[in-house]
Amino acid sequence: MEKLLTEANTLDRQDGLAGFRERFHFPAHRDGQDLVYLCGHSLGLQAKSVPAVIQDELDAWRERAVRGHFEGPRPWMEYNRRLSESLSGMVGSRPAEIVVMNTLSVNLHLMMVSFFRPRGNRRKILIEQHAFPSDRYAVQSQLRFHGLDPEQDLVELGPAEGGHLVGESAVEDYLRAHGEEIALVLWPGVQYITGQAFNLEQIARAARSAGACVGFDLAHQVGNVPVELHDSGCDFAAWCHYKYLNAGPGAVAGAFVHEKHHHTTNLPRFNGWWGNAQQSRFRMAHDFEAELGADAWQISTPLLLSMAPLRASLELFDEAGLQRLRAKSVAMTAFLIGGIHQYLHDLLEIITPLEPERRGSQLSLRVRSGRTDGRALFEYLEANGVLTDWREPDVIRVAPVPLYNNFRDCFELLRVIGEWTAVTGSRSCP
Q1: What is the pLDDT of residue 161?
Q2: Which residue has the higher pLDDT, 129 or 429?
Q3: What is the pLDDT of residues 43-74, one digit of tens each?
Q4: What is the DSSP string of 122-145?
Q5: Is this model's pTM higher than 0.90 or not?
Q6: Using CA atoms, how far apart are residues 343 and 413, in angstroms rounded to an integer?
Q7: List of domains in the chain
Q8: Cα–Cα distance measured from residue 296 to residue 145, given in angstroms and rounded to the nearest whole number
Q9: What secondary structure does DSSP assign to 58-105, as a single string?
Q10: Which residues sit opposite 39 in a β-bridge?
């Protein structure tokens, strides 16, 4: 692998984003050295600027107390909207279509209150068969809330037998055949197990043609794979910020509501006082006056101290540039794919699509000899300073994140896997 190491070092020297690595904290391995952290698809690292950003708001609380809502360099009343402005460029939307609030699963429920409206024979929800469990639990409970039976009214579309991926054409074919039964299509932007990135415009177009509403779970997409939500034609989307956006565990989440719905007066919605129009919010009137745009879906006072780390992260993304990050991400996954094909293809199967436009930062790997060896490899990696992620039944997920990972991290992953094959006698290519 000496040639691969030389290539990694050369690519790192040429990397215009290399300096961002020093602006993050890396957890230490037991030998005191930084871990090779390839788990940003699960929880992003802490930026070194986060404590100061949180301290800014603690200082404002200490110095201004309740007046902090209206005074100071970042009045709390406007905090949410400033974040929406930054996020709108990242997700391809208009600022008024974005709201930062709650958590991902809560936001999915709130969106389904508005956009899952079963009527007559059109009462089913279509999801991807291996959707993240929280999505399944959410849609099952929404169906039950409407008096429906998930056994009958939850439709799960999976890959063909023996495959790992669901093509957009399969979604189109199903909706052409059964679309009159579907009230809502809820689809991931990037599939959490396989790392497959979907053509969301194609799926939204198929859903609209079938007469269904369509929403996206972008937990693994925002900050990873660029998306154009406004132009996609979807009705709504929701996502978290603790993965690629590095906003910390349990971070406040985001949601999108297309502007075509902003003035729909008969759209049901669960209201709360922070969704009331800002200019009349403090009049404490009995009648609800909706805020303009996605802000109308807010319910409670924003989680200010949870928003501060997101602000720190968005400042880094604004500086780095999403397109530059995406280009580096594609290059790092290509480096890994090439290394696996050259040195480890007898040992590992890559179930993530190989086409750059169909993957993000994550590669999902299976050990060909089965789950027992796969689990053993995963544990060996962690024991030797390479932190990845295991998903049942047999998938090792690795994600070189372009904001703080480098090509040497990718090489170390391949090196330690090669070391494991030598130790265990598992098959790999010479």
Answers
A1: 80
A2: 129
A3: 999 999 999 999 999 999 999 999 999 999 99
A4: B-EEEEETT--HHHHHHHHHHHHH
A5: yes
A6: 12
A7: 2-34+321-424 (3.90.1150.10), 53-318 (3.40.640.10)
A8: 23
A9: HHHHHHHGGGGGTSSSS-HHHHHHHHHHHHHHHHT--GGGEEE-S-HH
A10: 399
